[in-house]
Structures are given as structure tokens and as C-alpha cells.
Amino acid sequence: xxxxxxxxxxxxxxxxxxxxxxxxxxxxxxxxxxxxxxxxxxxxxxxxxxxxxxxxxxxxxxxxxxxxxxxxxxxxxxxxxxxxxxxxxxxxxxxxxxxxxxxxxxxxxxxxxxxxxxxxxxxxxxxxxxxxxxxxxxxxxxxxxxxxxxxxxxxxxxxxxxxxxxxxxxxxxxxxxxxxxxxxxxxxxxxxxxxxxxxxxxxxxxxxxxxxxxxxxxxxxxxxxxxxxxxxxxxxxxxxxxxxxxxxxxxxxxxxxxxxxxxxxxxxxx
Length: 270
Prior knowledge:
Oligomer: single chain
Distance between the termini: 156 Å
Number of strands: 12
């Protein structure tokens, strides 16, 4: 006859005697450390044991303490960026206002006829490079306004930049003195020596003279008409000793891209 034994499983309680013993021992150690922490040797030992934890705690404390400063600095940068954007926008509006006033002033000059004294007509530039070929401009005046082929085109009473080469009833075409291939005859204001100038484009002109010819940088080239007009300014003098000549580079007296009003005068006294 077989005997059957039933194995009885016993449940282990986590909070049993062993846990109570361990907790009791830990409590005694904690009390011991607390009671003797006021003595220097024991205090040093405790500090040595717990110093890594204390340092870690200080690191996290300092880090969390800096978080408000980070957000404060970030907000300050955002405010400064917004202020700079506002300043840029205001400057843009100021520039637009300035250009508008400048345009109105130019139109007012035309309406009031503020031009040099004498037999001059005023005209507005309606097109210039790069809208049209280099060294040409279109004007809003034509034959109905008394404009004729060959009229001098000025930007001031004594500053000549070109001539009228084509005229319709209400439009005229100007070829500048610097137009490629255009030949002009003038003289040096300082010495009265005559020179023959050739346009090479881009607002520039050139002339070749003997190496002993008296011409220097800054010399003004004049042309005769009803008055003596300034036509070009010497910008470079290059001596070519083997050939025995000087190569002279000149430019128009003004930057045509920055003007919008010109004055017209007959090429000779009427």
C-alpha cells in the first residue's frame, strides 16, 4: 500500500523576521552616526562617505537654480530681436518716405522751371541703362517742346554730358559723350591745349597724346558752345615710353545713373 504525502507550501512573508532584523540594525547604525557626528573623527568619516552624494546634490541644485536665469536671458534676447526688427521696418519706411519726397521735389523743379538762367529747357529722363543701350538716355521732351537734333544735354549750367541725336514730337534720344565711337573736340581748361576725345562706353573716354604733352590726373576737359562746358575729367595717365605716347582715360563729370532731370541748350548761339 502506497502512502501519498502532500507537500505543504509555506508562504514567505517579506516583512518577516529577517527584514525586521535588518531594519533594526540599520536604525542602530543611523543612530550611532547621528550621536557621534559631532565628534571630528566621526564627522570626517561621515563626510568622506557621503561627500560624493553631497556633491551630486549640489550640482543638481546649481543646475536647477540656473534654469530661471536661462529663460530670463532667452526672453531678453527675444525682446531685443523684436526691437531690432521694428527699427529695421521703421528705417525701411523712412527710406520709402525719403524717395517719395525726392521724387516730388524733382517734379516740383520741373513744374516751377527751376533751371539755370539763360536759354535752357528742362526735361525728365524717362529711360536709361540698363533699360536701354549703354551711354544713351531717353527724355520726355520733343519737337513740340522746342527740342532739336544737336542740342546740348546738361546736368548743370556748365556740365555737358551729351547731345540730342533723335527727336520725335514728345520724345528725344540722347547719346552721351562716352558712347562707343563718339568723337568730341575739346580743350584742357588748365592749358587751353586742344584734344580729340573718343568715347569707349560705360561713361568713359580716352585720348592718346605725345608723351611730352602736358596733361595730368584731375585735368578738366572743356568744350565750346554758347558757353564753355565741362565735358570730362582725367582719371588716369599712362605713359608708354616705347611708343612715345601717353594713354589718357577720362570719365563723365557726373554719374548719369543718379540723375533724373537734365537741361537742354542749343549747340551754338542763336
